[in-house]
Amino acid sequence: MLEIQNLSVDVGGKRILNDLNLHIGDGEVHVLFGANGSGKTTLFMTILGFPDYRVVEGRIYFRGIDITGLDTTERVRLGMGVSFQHPPEIRGVKLREVVGLLLARSGGGDPLLLARRLNLSEEFLERDLNLGFSGGEVKRSEILQLLAQNPEFYMFDEPDSGVDLENVELIGRVMSEMLERDKRPSERRKSALIITHIGYILNYIKADRAHVMLDGRIACSGMPDEIYNHILKEGFEECVRRCGGDRCER
Amino acid sequence: MRGEEEIEIESFDLEGGEHDPISGLDELSEYEKELLAAGIDPQERERSGSFLQQDHSVVLARSLLPGLEVMGTDDALRRYPWLEDYSWKLIPRDRDRFTREVAERPTHGYFIRAERDARITLPLQSCLFISKDKIRQNVHNIIIAEENSELHIITGCTVSHRVSSALHLGISEFYVKPGAKITFTMVHNWAGGVDVRPRSAVLVEDGGVFISNYIVMTPVRSLQMYPTAYCLGRGSVATFQSIVYASSHSNIDMGSRIVFKGRGSRGDIVSRVIATDHAKVIAKGDLVGEADDVKGHLECRGLMLSDTSVIESVPELKARRRNIDLSHEAAVGKIAEEEIRYLMARGFSEDEAVGMIIRGFLSLEIKGLPEGLARETKRMFDMTLEKVM
């Protein structure tokens, strides 16, 4: 699904990603851990092709296509979707309008039916995009848009931060459905990369692999539960050190 | 601003703009596009009546419902001597040279009146249409909603594509009696060669409601206006909403003023202004609190789409009592790059994203309209926006 090779990225003249490699296969869900400032969100924005994120070295392949030189719209239309951590408020643009347009593109459907899956009301659909949304509403609105978009590859930037436990469970359940986690591994087609700081979401969605980012590269990879437990006990740096500073295949 | 002194009133003709009456708007099929753009339905569907003035002639004035009167102002002044008590009472004849011109040489205008207790929820459509080049239109409108009546007016000012230059002077006096309501949705569909000077004032009595929705999306050479609502009655309400898309070399100086004179009166002034190309817009708002328990809010948002356009926002609050709540917010900026990127990350192209943001910015919820009229106004707005963008 996604193959990143030797990726180095500058933002505002400063190197943020440094020789990063990542491979996510079809049907796989990966988790990305890392301290603040380790480059997790930068990786997302670079995969999306946002112009401030300048690729100075390396390539990004998506579904077998080299997307390194494509613009954001082109990349997204190849089948990727993202749930932002801090989406901008857009006055006057209704959530219903966006969901409706996304549904029209992905084959149709009723915005309200999707909204109800996330416990969002009809009135909520009439609100301006992200304007005055609570933490939980932001996340559910982002997931709602992804449901409507129905991409092949999902990126979730901290879907569980600033959300109460009840909503984390709801979000986790819907994510699990979106990612076909109920199917047998060989039948799963949807892939995902999930950034989580606190790891709550992992209680509700089973991931296949986890990575720890440190100083702009993937410093350590392994089984999600083990990596998460290491981080909880000893912190990011210690976890990476135990991995021998490289891949911790277990 | 094209200076007031630069407009030579006499250089625009007061003669030669006469037309025969018509029996239906379909007789103006050659101008259908212009009329539609100003919100006029030629079939008069879902309308309570129509008024159409073409150049210097009232060609159609009819009410389709009981309790509603529509006619030319001069006819009405002849028929009703009492109307003198409403004529030039809110706007002094000698306020400026444009009011003087209309007072001395009026060319009709409309008189619209809802009778006492008449709740007319279907809108009345009125249109001031310029089809002849280089003329001036000096209209005087008087609108009265008698006690406990309700009146919705959709009014379009429009100009034939054949007109390269014209002057429109429009005096409008609104009277909202106790418990009455007027909504006035005005679409200006001028052209780059037209100078426009509306002079409007509104008197709102006890418990009365006045709502103005103003939309201008097409270029205009110069437009200057500062309609004022006097909330005289206890608990009276006035709202001015304006949506402005100023393009080309449009020169727009517009404001709205609410003077709160009645205890517990309240009101809002809301504007959304987009300036692009070489347009210049001055968006003013003025809330004057002269009574107790008054509440007023002013909100002006501007969006700049070019480096050669100008938006000046001038909000003013004047409190003359202690027990008063007046506030304002004003913001002018460009489209945030972050918002465009966000929508592109949903798969929209950059142009689609910008279009959505602009549409969203301008899409004020038009308050106080009956559902059908609100829907239609929205459709008209979308149509116009599509055309200008």
TrEMBL record, chain A:
This is ABC transporter ATP-binding protein. The lineage of its organism: Archaea, Methanobacteriati, Methanobacteriota, Stenosarchaea group, Methanomicrobia. It comes from the Archaea. Gene3D superfamilies: P-loop containing nucleotide triphosphate hydrolases. Keywords: ATP-binding, Nucleotide-binding. Residues 2-240 form the ABC transporter domain. It comes from Candidatus Syntropharchaeum butanivorans. The keyword Manganese does not apply. Coiled coil: none annotated. The keyword Oxidoreductase does not apply. CDD domains: ABC_FeS_Assembly. GO terms for molecular function: ATP binding; ATP hydrolysis activity.
